[in-house]
Structure to design on (534 residues):
């Protein structure tokens, strides 16, 4: 299940811009003045971060809804 | 821009009239002229927040099915007519007219009638509501609904049909019969809307004709034992309990997470409310009183206009409670345990949705993302369920997103305020965009404020 952040692996992913393999590292996700420090696969050079669809449509969407309100 | 045209009612004959919203000395007035009964002008807003800025863009839902053909005009055709522009997010059904209080104020004019509609009749009404309105939040109301002998069965049937079931009650039976709360919890009740006008007996005496503070506290304790969430619902009356908001807030916070919020209802001149229309508590007046009495913990800038009902009908403030019970506006910062200190802050991904990835393996098109804005009714239903349903025990483990989701389920607290309309303030633009509907037997759904509308003589337009 890829919305369990610890299950999201950097293995096999390469940054299209820098050509470097992605590495798991700390990233701060921010939305509506709230920030969430998490570990995700990211490019060690430019910092572009890989967020799998399951995470974007699962846990992140749930957080969005909580923050966005009725 | 002011003046803004709309349509309003003559408070005497309830004729629909052309009207203007006019700004005057920091207030906004609803002005109209009845050829028979003269000019009427009522303050409906006293900023801040400024009414011009109190707006929120929203996607309109699909038109609701209507039950009446129209012909006599709004609001006489109510129930719903083709002029209605909004689906229901919540539907209220009165399961009895009988009440165990005889409040000096009651928009429902409830009384002592001796019979109850049989459960089978109520089940048929619930089926019809589900068919016409869809999966709304269902409110069981009255009269006093806990008096109905089949209430647990009614709750059970309602939960089979609707995503959430709310009970609007004065709480006296919950206090007296300690077995009732657990029976309702087992039947699937989602939360209790507890009439709770203040923290002093003199307030209960003035509005309800009895000393009720001890019973109210017993009712909350019974709900806590049963794991039932409670929202405290004060009817606010100027000069009676508008000085009690700070104490109400403290009382509620001391009982969180059983108490999940305050839902304030400024009194309107409907039913047998002896309310002089000159002493009206507008939404900004309530916000200013909250800011003053909460000593700055609740501020007008925390309030948002609604995304479902009309923007002039309500405000809501949402908070996260920290371990010490302090309020933190939701959306201002993540929960404390999830926050990194600025010194440790890692690189920032500036948005949840990053630009299309340029990874070689991601050659296929990105998946279809859901629309950024759900229909307002669906969003409102999901939001009130999140805010008001019983809080599950909080799980401490997981990543920062998981911890935030868990804390939002169990440690959020909301302050909401609904400005119901009466014959003096009814604005047809608001009525036609209403999403809080009442089931009017045998087969109509009516905006709450239209259903409860009475003229200056106390005569009801729709309620029988």
């Amino acid at each position: 299940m890829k919305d369990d952040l610890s299950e999201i692996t950097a293995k096999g992913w390469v940054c299209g811009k820098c050509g470097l393999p992605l590495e798991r590292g700390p990233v701060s996700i921010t939305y509506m003045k709230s920030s969430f420090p998490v570990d995700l696969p990211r490019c060690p050079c430019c910092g572009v971060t890989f967020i799998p669809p399951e995470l974007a449509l699962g846990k992140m969407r749930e957080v969005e809804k909580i923050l966005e309100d009725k | 821009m002011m003046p803004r045209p709309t349509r309003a009612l003559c408070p005497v004959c309830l004729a629909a009239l052309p009207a203007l919203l006019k700004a005057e000395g920091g207030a906004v007035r609803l002005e109209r002229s009845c050829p028979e009964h003269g000019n009427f002008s009522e303050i409906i807003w006293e900023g801040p927040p400024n009414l011009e800025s109190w707006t929120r863009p929203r996607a309109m839902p699909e038109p609701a099915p209507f039950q009446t053909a129209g012909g006599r005009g709004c609001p006489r055709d109510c129930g719903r007519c083709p002029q209605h522009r909004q689906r229901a997010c919540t539907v209220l059904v009165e399961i009895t007219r009988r009440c165990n209080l005889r409040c000096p104020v009651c928009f429902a004019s409830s009384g002592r009638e001796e019979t109850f509609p049989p459960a089978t009749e109520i089940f048929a009404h619930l089926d019809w509501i589900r068919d016409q309105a869809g999966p709304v939040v269902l409110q069981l109301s009255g009269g006093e609904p806990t008096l109905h002998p089949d209430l647990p069965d009614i709750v059970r049937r309602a939960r089979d049909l609707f995503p959430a079931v709310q009970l609007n009650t004065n709480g006296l039976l919950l206090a007296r019969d300690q077995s009732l709360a657990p029976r309702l919890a087992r039947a699937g009740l989602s939360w209790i809307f507890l009439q709770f006008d203040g923290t002093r007996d003199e307030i209960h005496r003035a509005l309800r004709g009895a000393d009720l503070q001890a019973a109210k506290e017993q009712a909350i304790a019974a709900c806590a034992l049963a794991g039932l969430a409670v929202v405290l619902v004060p009817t606010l009356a100027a000069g009676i309990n508008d000085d009690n908001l700070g104490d109400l807030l403290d009382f509620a916070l001391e009982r969180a997470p059983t108490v999940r919020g305050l839902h304030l209802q400024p009194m309107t001149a409907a039913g047998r409310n002896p309310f002089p229309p000159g002493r009206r508590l507008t939404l900004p007046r309530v916000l200013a009183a909250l800011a003053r009495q909460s000593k700055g913990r609740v501020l007008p800038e925390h309030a948002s206009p609604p995304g479902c009902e009309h923007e002039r009908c309500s405000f809501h403030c949402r908070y996260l409670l920290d371990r010490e019970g302090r309020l933190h506006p939701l959306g201002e910062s993540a929960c404390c345990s999830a926050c990194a200190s600025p010194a440790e802050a890692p690189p920032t991904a500036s948005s949840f949705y990053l630009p299309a990835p340029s990874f070689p393996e991601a050659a296929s098109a990105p998946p279809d993302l859901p629309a950024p804005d759900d229909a307002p009714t669906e969003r409102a239903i999901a939001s009130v369920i999140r805010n008001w349903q019983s809080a599950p025990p909080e799980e401490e483990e997981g990543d920062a997103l998981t911890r935030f989701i868990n804390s939002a389920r169990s440690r959020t607290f909301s302050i909401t305020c609904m400005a119901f309309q009466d014959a003096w303030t009814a604005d047809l633009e608001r009525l036609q965009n209403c999403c809080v509907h009442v089931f009017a037997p045998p087969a109509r759904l009516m905006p709450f404020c239209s259903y409860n509308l009475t003229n200056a003589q106390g005569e009801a337009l729709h309620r029988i």
